[in-house]
Design goal:
Elements (H helix, E strand, L loop, with lengths): L1 E9 L2 E7 H4 L5 H11 L10 E6 L6 E7 L4 E2 L3 H15 L3 E5 L4 E7 L8 E6 L18 E5 L8 E6 L3 E6 L2 H5 L2 H9 L11 E9 L2 E8 L3 E3 L3 H13 L8 E6 L2 E11 L2 E9 L1 E11 L2 E12 L3 H20 L3
Parallel strand pairs: 2-3, 4-6, 11-12, 13-15
Antiparallel strand pairs: 1-2, 1-18, 3-4, 4-5, 6-7, 7-8, 8-17, 9-10, 10-11, 12-13, 13-14, 15-16, 16-17, 18-19
């Protein structure tokens, strides 16, 4: 079969976007998994953190399903949702839409550029769940906010929440950013372990100044990634809970792929949602020929490059200069 796709990224978190809604594709679960394993491989495939499948929805403008590079399915992906949001907004000629995800129907809207000439979209990140059963996390308590976990570290404290992907977040100093601690902790909680039976995304967060943070994330099913949208949203929420930042105010979130803006909204003491605002950049569109049973043996029929990455590189360079100056040069 011939398959059309778009290579895109949000904050350097890159994806292959496949439109099942318009092109009439009807993949099985096994086929989606196999496509992710074959096409996302950076050595033998096109290379990506995952595949974004866009499908019809009975109650929303479209449905998004996300398959990671290892073939697992993610319940949500904030950076991917911006890319899907842009695609569906342009397809339907709308400025605001609602996308069905695994756990929630989420609003997406076009926004003013976060940096010059950057296609920018605002996506809703919710629900926010603190009950450890929602991650799941096996611990003899209902929730974990800024507490130690002796099994994985005797020096750091952690907060755990699902948005709805599971996240383990630690506010750290530069010495921890530069150390090997995050890799060790991440590999422990994403391998055979008693705490997180399904694994967990692990983020180290370093406050830069009021309204500004740096986030580095080890993403479950991916590894260290340039950026993880739900991790940046969850990290922003934790900094508000711990008094580093303010609810309702924009937080500039820097990462290895660039930066986004997050607004943490609090309805009451137990109800939160986030607005994740950032780029949705197209790299190229391509047509490939493959067998759905053996997608690793694909043939690229055509490719058309977009010119948007040059503008994003300016944002990336700006973000890198901030991170270098305030994180790595202060260590």
């Amino acid at each position: 079969m011939n398959l059309n796709l778009i290579k895109c990224h949000g904050s350097g978190n890159d994806f292959l976007l496949i439109d099942e809604m318009s092109h009439g594709y009807d993949f099985t679960e096994e086929a989606r998994q196999n496509l992710a394993l074959a096409l996302c491989d950076r050595k033998t495939g096109l290379g990506a953190d995952g595949i974004l499948f866009v499908l019809n929805s009975e109650r929303c403008d479209a449905q998004m399903r996300v398959f990671n590079a290892d073939g697992s399915e993610a319940s949500m992906c904030g950076n991917g949702l911006r890319c899907v949001g842009r695609y569906v907004c342009e397809l339907l000629e709308k400025e605001s839409i609602v996308i069905q995800t695994m756990k929630a129907d989420l609003k997406v809207s076009q926004q003013e550029a976060i940096f010059e000439n950057i296609p920018t979209y605002n996506v809703e990140i919710s629900p926010v769940l603190f009950n450890l059963n929602a991650l799941p996390m096996n611990m003899d308590k209902e929730k974990l906010i800024d507490e130690s976990i002796p099994e994985i570290s005797d020096a750091l404290t952690f907060s755990a929440l699902a948005v709805p992907n599971p996240h383990l977040i630690s506010i750290v100093n530069t010495e921890h950013i530069l150390s090997n601690e995050q890799k060790t902790i991440s590999e422990t909680v994403n391998g055979p372990n008693n705490l997180f039976p399904d694994g967990v995304n692990v983020s180290f967060v370093h406050p830069l100044e009021k309204g500004s943070i740096y986030v580095r994330t080890f993403e479950r099913g991916v590894g260290f990634t340039n950026a993880c949208g739900t991790a940046m949203s969850a990290s922003s929420l934790v900094t508000c809970l711990l008094g580093h930042n303010d609810f309702g105010e924009g937080i500039e979130v820097y990462n290895n792929g660039g930066k986004v803006r997050v607004v943490v909204n609090r309805s009451n003491e137990e109800t939160y949602s986030m607005e994740l605002i950032g780029n949705a950049t197209y790299l190229y569109q391509a047509e490939i020929e493959l067998s759905i049973t053996h997608p690793e043996s694909y043939l690229e029929v055509s490719r058309q490059e977009f010119s948007e990455e040059a503008a994003y590189e300016l944002l990336q360079n700006h973000a890198k200069s901030i991170v270098d100056q305030k994180v790595f040069m202060t260590a």
